[in-house]
């Protein structure tokens, strides 16, 4: 017994300085395992006399309790230490460079729209909005496109009943703005427009941006329009491009022009994209026709208007050759923007 008590006491001393799980477990087995010192001691109790049994039994129980309280305290201490070192190892280093980019920057068409808005709002143009479903008056009549006029063929229209339709351009927003405000007007609008068309360069839904400036008197002229648009084209495509105004026709402007930019794919020397002309058409513009002012009840005013397809500008700016890729939600394309 004396010997066993000494062995137990030695083990308890070792237990006090233990600092890892494995050593703790082997000491537990040594002291209170199936063949441990305490277990052995208890089984030897049967061999001693009744008086001694009581005394030694009490001593063994005290040793057992001492072992247990020491063991659980150590166990907790070691587990806490292990947890701390584990947390230290798994700590996330937030200063590390992050390589996977799944944060969206917005659809390229909307990025272009925002660029356009930034430019014109910076020049004090107000941003206006209007409905997708329009009536015949705002989409056609007021813009000098009467019923049965061949100019309606320029725009393949989706019709509803009762002469309602999906707007074929954003120009009706100009009419609504003039109906609701007195000159001076300095506005742009952007939004979805709809035509019955579907191929490499046409989609049934696309986006336009239009602008309108109207002032009392006859002083607004082509020079103002030309300056604003030349600066605009250089803002979008860079100072290096050349801009050309080519006379054209729109029912709502007179005189009218289309604006071309030197082809950014061949730098103006002629290639397949620009059909070997060196130029690409990007917008329409002109001096507002007097019949438009008449339709909204304006008198003694002058003004200019311009309109452009946002998809087209986006394709030219970033070299996208199929319009349809804008609407196919293919992340491999969208992620490049
Ligand atoms: N609304 C015209 C279109 O869709 C564009 C335009 C607007 C042209 C204003 C001239 C002036 O074709």
Automatic annotation (TrEMBL):
The superkingdom of the source organism is Bacteria
Which key words tag this protein in UniProt? Aminoacyl-tRNA synthetase, ATP-binding, Cytoplasm, Ligase, Magnesium, Metal-binding, Nucleotide-binding, Protein biosynthesis
A Pfam family that this protein carries is: Phe_tRNA-synt_N
One GO-annotated biological process of the protein: phenylalanyl-tRNA aminoacylation
Query: What GO cellular component entries does it have?
Result: cytoplasm
Q: Give compartment(s).
A: Cytoplasm
Please verify whether the record's keywords include Nucleotide-binding: yes
Q: What is its cofactor? A: Mg(2+)
Enzyme Commission code(s) on record = 6.1.1.20
**Is Manganese given among the entry's keywords?**
no
Describe how the cofactor binds.
Answer: Binds 2 magnesium ions per tetramer.
Write out the residues that bind Mg(2+). Answer: 254
Cross-referenced PROSITE patterns:
AA_TRNA_LIGASE_II (PS50862)
User: Which residues are in the Aminoacyl-transfer RNA synthetases class-II family profile domain?
Assistant: 112-316
Q: Which reaction does it catalyse?
A: tRNA(Phe) + L-phenylalanine + ATP = L-phenylalanyl-tRNA(Phe) + AMP + diphosphate + H(+)
Q: Which GO terms describe its molecular function?
A: ATP binding; magnesium ion binding; phenylalanine-tRNA ligase activity; tRNA binding
What's this protein's family per the entry?
A: Belongs to the class-II aminoacyl-tRNA synthetase family. Phe-tRNA synthetase alpha subunit type 1 subfamily.
Its assembly, as annotated, is: Tetramer of two alpha and two beta subunits.
Name under which the protein is recorded: Phenylalanine--tRNA ligase alpha subunit
What organism is the protein native to?
A: Helicobacter didelphidarum
Q: Upper taxonomic classification of the species?
A: Bacteria, Pseudomonadati, Campylobacterota, Epsilonproteobacteria, Campylobacterales
User: What gene is it encoded by?
Assistant: pheS
């Amino acid at each position: 017994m004396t010997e066993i008590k000494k062995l137990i006491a030695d083990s308890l001393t070792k237990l006090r300085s233990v600092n890892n799980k494995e050593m703790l477990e082997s000491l537990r087995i040594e002291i209170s395992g199936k063949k441990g010192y305490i277990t052995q001691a208890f089984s030897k109790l049967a061999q001693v006399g009744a008086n001694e049994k009581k005394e030694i039994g009490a001593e063994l129980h005290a040793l057992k309790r001492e072992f247990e309280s020491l063991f659980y305290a150590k166990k907790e201490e070691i587990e806490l230490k292990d947890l701390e070192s584990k947390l230290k190892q798994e700590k996330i280093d937030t200063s590390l460079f992050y390589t996977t980019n799944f944060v969206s920057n917005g659809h390229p068409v909307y990025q272009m729209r925002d660029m356009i808005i930034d430019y014109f709002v910076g020049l004090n143009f107000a941003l206006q909005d209007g409905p997708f479903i329009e009536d015949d008056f705002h989409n056609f009549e007021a813009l000098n496109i009467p019923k049965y006029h061949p100019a309606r063929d320029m725009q393949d229209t989706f019709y509803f009943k009762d002469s309602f339709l999906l707007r074929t351009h954003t120009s009706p927003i100009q009419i609504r703005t003039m109906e609701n405000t007195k000159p001076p007007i300095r506005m742009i609008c952007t939004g979805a427009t709809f035509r019955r068309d579907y191929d490499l360069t046409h989609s049934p839904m696309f986006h336009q941006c239009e602008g309108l400036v109207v002032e009392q008197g006859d002083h607004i002229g082509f020079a103002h329009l030309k300056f604003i648009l030349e600066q605009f084209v250089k803002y979008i495509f860079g100072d290096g491009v050349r801009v050309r105004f080519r006379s054209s026709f729109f029912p709502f402007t007179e005189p009218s022009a289309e604006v071309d930019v030197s082809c950014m794919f061949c730098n103006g020397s002629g290639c397949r994209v620009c059909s070997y002309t060196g130029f690409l058409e990007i917008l329409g513009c002109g001096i507002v026709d007097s019949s438009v002012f008449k339709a909204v009840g304006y008198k003694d005013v002058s003004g200019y208007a311009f309109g452009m397809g946002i998809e087209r500008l986006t394709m030219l700016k970033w070299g996208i050759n199929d319009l349809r890729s804008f609407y196919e939600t293919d992340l491999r394309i969208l992620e490049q923007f």
